[in-house]
Amino acid sequence: MGLPRFPQDIRLAVVGLGYVGLPLAVEFGKVLDVVGYDIDARRVKELRGGHDHTLEVEDGQLAAATRLRYSDDETDLRDANVYIVTTPTPIDEFKQPDLSPVLSATEAIGRALQPGGTVIYESTVYPGATEERCVPLLEEVSGLKFNRDFFVGYSPERINPGDREHRLPTIVKVTSGSTPEVADFVDSLYRLVITAGTHRAPSIRVAEAAKVIENTQRDVNIALINELAVLFNRLGIDTEDVLRAAGSKWNFLGFRPGLVGGHCIGVDPYYLTHKAQSVGYHPEIILAGRRLNDSMGSYVASQLVKRMTKQDLSVRGARVLILGLTFKENTPDLRNTRVVDIVGELADYEISVDVHDPWADPEDARRHYGIDLVPEPEPGAYDAIIVAVAHRQFVELGAAGIRAFGARDRHVLYDLKYVLDQADSDLRL
Length: 429
What we know:
Helix content is 39%, strand content 13%. α4 (100-112) packs parallel to α5 (129-142), α7 packs across α9 and α11 crosses α12 (339-348). The protein is built from 14 helices and 13 strands. It has helices at 21-28, 41-48, 59-64, 100-112, 129-142, 180-191, 204-235, 239-246, 268-278, 284-294, 296-310, 339-348, 362-369, 392-403, and strands at residues 11-15, 33-37, 68-71, 82-85, 117-121, 150-154, 173-175, 198-200, 319-323, 352-356, 384-387, 412-415, 427-428. It is of the alpha/beta class and 429 residues long. β11 (384-387), α14 and β12 (412-415) form a beta-alpha-beta unit. The longest helix is centred in the middle third of the chain and has 32 residues, at 204-235. The chain is elongated. The strands form three sheets. Strands 3-2-1-4-5-6 form a six-stranded parallel sheet, with helices on both faces. Strands 10-9-11-12-13 form a five-stranded parallel sheet, sandwiched between helices.
């Protein structure tokens, strides 16, 4: 059974309408008939109403996708002959890959898959997962034969939440397919919406590996800078001053210290290390970087407590304000935020912590982390303030506006994100 004629016979389904799937469905919905499918009925209702609460797609862009319809009814998947899977791939409590969302989507597609269908995966996985885990499940559920009755491709997502410059059409797309003909088909499909062009990988496994090392590389580099920040703190040297000086060399990489959260950088390395360990290789540098980055919340809390003690501020019973909860600036994305590590560590010192974030959804913060956001911090009430996320609202407040939340006699201001000048804060990473 052959592939559908391109592009006139393509009926596309995007499975998963989160940060990755929705922008993809919208772009394709401008040129193809697309059903955007999600198991979350509330999400589908919201999108049908013309709004995206993640703020990744503006209301006008949703309206421009005139050939896109939304559904939470699995039977609507039967109308498609090309499927793109964009479900999340998190880790479990033991930091092992959790493929259940992508496998659940695979089962749903398998129930709808007809001869000649093509399934393309965008979800981040370890090298080999598509062909070792997803393909057998598709065969089992559909009763069809791989590379005879149906075909598979892999094109890793490169969405950067909150980034208004690097959008889906302007980011080069890696593509691959289970046969040379399928690779051509997948590549041509994405070229309909990707103006930046594509890079055709020689195999699905190569494309999977390329994705997972993109964020592993960033994770390791940030871990190095975090370690240097700890060292420079002990030496009494300002880390930002050092990085600016080193950055005057043309080939110095401009990484900065900080908390490493989000659905990609803090998660993807565990997919690679899982696969490495399954073939008997213990990855030293990758795991060391992960351990170091995961420890930064504890380090920040301890540094704050030390500084409070030096300033004769009582730690037990103190009030601390944390500005920002999302994993990065100017986005409501709370996935895998490491700000919660600071909250937990400070609670262990019997410190009362208030968290304020104008971007985060209060209900999501409560549901996922048990944190009740304060709508407006109380002026003059806090013994310490931590600028944890560089939201534009905090940048606009400036040093005077942020310090207005602190106790008037004395307080500690800890700037994790270099929002303020060195002279305007008491502590920096």
